[in-house]
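Revision sheet: structure tokens.
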Amino acid sequence: MTAMIDRLRARFTQRGQGSSELTIQKRIHRIEKDLHALVEQHEEVFRQLRRLQAGVDGIVRGVHVDPSTLPYPERLMARRFRLHSQNQEDGILWALFQQIGVTNARFVELGSGSSGGNAAMFAAECGWTGLMVEGDREKVEYAGRQFPRVTAVCAWITPETVNTLLVQHGCAGEVDLFSLDIDGNDYWVWNAMTACSPRVVVLEYNSMFGPERAVTIPYDPEFSRRDHRFCYFGASLAALTKLSAKKGYRLVAVEPTGVNAFFLRHDVAPEIPACDPARAYRLVEKYNTLIREKEIDVFKWASDTGRQLVDVD
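Predicted:
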């Protein structure tokens, strides 16, 4: 778009030799505003088309695929759809709760953003209550207006504060759903969280770390993903699976886009088997493209730039 504006600027300058510089600048400014508006509209149309495509895919899948004929974790993944979630987590969670039942219809969503995260559908469509925590005040205020029956709290989530937050806002003990997505110290917060005992856990993992190595970024209370390259944050699927096993949870599925992993407490629905992380693992498409086109090796890049990784093995 910048190149287009430069061409227009040159054209108007040539044509407007008899016009004032102010008139030319006003015309260019008006065109710039119109172009920016068109770009924003194009991006919104693209987002809506992707959302529509996910809905159509969910309907087609529901009509033609019989999940009962599939092994796990595909049996859960085949039920995926999207109403409020980012990557069709709604359908996988719905399939899980249809099978395991609901106890108290309560959730904890850490890193809710303005959308409400993975708990949004249950808050909006199913009448669940619970806690949404987000570090951005504007986003958490938006979520609070969107989900009036939910407790929306602005707070910076750390291993030192997570249990106090849960206790203060009435989320100690058993909850049906716990979701964690803070783009950084996820491993260390999940490791420290002891105040509640969720039946279902959703954890974001960093698919750039691959399916095998059990690694996480070291704990840094001031960590911000904006200070690093896109691929340096969080923990690998293998690391989160190992930690979850120590805490009494088993990996049961990963949604196909390669962002979120689903875990069940060991005493919940034992008929749903644990899944090996190497089999469940999915790589985010844009990461796969970058690896192919730019040959990015996240481990080499981290070493070359002095960024540490902790091997949890």
